[in-house]
Amino acid sequence: MGKTPSLNLLKGTKNIEDTVRYVCLKDGEGDHEHEPLSSGARFFHEPGFNVYILTKIGAKSSFDINRTKAYLIQMIDKYPCFSQVVVKDKESGSMKWVPTHVNVDDHLIVPEIEQNMDSSDQFIEDYISNLTVSCIDNLKPLWDVHILNTRTSDAQGTCIFRAHHSLGDGLSFMSMLLSLSRKASDPEALPTLPVNMKAHHHTTTATNVISFCMVLWNTFVALMLFVFTTMFLKDTETPMKASTGVEDRRRRIVTRSVSLADIKLVKNAMNATVNDVIVGVIQAGFNRYLKRRYEEINSPVPENILLRAMISYNLRASVNVDASAKNTNENETWGYKVGYILLPFNVKNRSDPLDYVREAKSTMERRKASLEPFATRFFAKSLVNKLFGMKIAGKLNRNVYYNTTFCFSNMPGPKEEICVLGHEVTYLAPSLYGIPSGLMIHVISYVDKVTFVLSADEKTIPDPRRLCDDLQQSLHHIKCSVLAKPCVEN
After folding, report:
1. Which of 45, 107, 164, 165 is catalytic?
2. 202 part of the active site
3. DSSP SS3 for 65
4. 57: which strand partners?
5. Rounded to the nearest 5 degrees, what angle is found at the Cα of 434, between the Cα atoms of 433 and 437?
6. What gap in Å lies between CA 72 and CA 75, rounded to an integer?
7. What's the predicted TM-score (pTM) here?
């Protein structure tokens, strides 16, 4: 992105009220260049695709406002996209990033909170739910931070970071967050990730077990299914599939944490990956949830349900926490570098809970033996966009979300406790709203826990906490099957 006026953080400075309000820089003024939005960013300004990334952060203490402001100035200084606005040319329809001065106070919301309320947890959940039917004024940079200093069951203070998805993809924001974080045990050290966060590239060398021809065939089949889904191929109409207009409706964002050790126990016993186990748990959880929903309407569960997840897939060669990059131009993790995968979920009833993990492992292995995310990215971002334009490309892109059942994302988090905005963190919970899908499931690990973050359309999934219960119970049953002992409901 183009350069922006530096807002350097002065160590020890507490008065940072002297930042000015937004004044868009005119063309030709200074050295500032107005950079066009990428095709990935443009998608999120098309009708019906006004998507926001919302990350909930719990802290061990109340958030200090001055310290939070200081860290936000660091963020603006290092990542210029947070000091740019979107300007649309009325004649050509083109969109550009235009640098602007930033007043941090316009982006930091600290509401007064009644400390003796009946349920702080419910207050936080309702507050976030209200955010999901609101937008940020596009006359200013498209992000804000909400500080809710009230004690909940798992934190002393809560921070909600919200940003428009056109600023970057999910991995961009996670990399940004971690680059500004430090280990709680060592204020000078960056967080340690459980893996090198390498992108799941698919090699096709002679050493592969599956031949190059099979990889090409799997890729072709996956691409055809993706193309058909953009046009007419729809998932089975179940109680989990959203109706038209879901992107504009209120959402409920809930979380449920489980033991990372339990997932690793299953992983090691079945020679699988953590991701295989998580997909297996979701399949089993969906089975439990759908059976209950169909029982409520006195209807049998349909046979051969087609239920798929839309997954955005990282295509970067590697994703490392980079504290040395001075801005987004130097940071290889920033931007839109994702392809798409349509992952089928088998929700049939199984007598052996481990079958859900076995099927997930088999499905994931087939996906690894293809170039599906590269092919779908080329089709969606390059071919259709260049041949038919952004409007048609945007419509086909939305159709993929409409025609599948839910969205899914899985990301490893820090191994040790970290400090964000100068405060020790108890949990991280990223999510989305504004997407044309009734359910979004983010899964993120942090220290010794794995957290399922559900963003649910209230009309489609009116009881997201019961779905969380089903996911937790499913992991419990799978773990008991591994240990070969009777399973008792928690």
Report:
1. 165
2. no
3. helix
4. 159, 428
5. 90
6. 5
7. 0.86
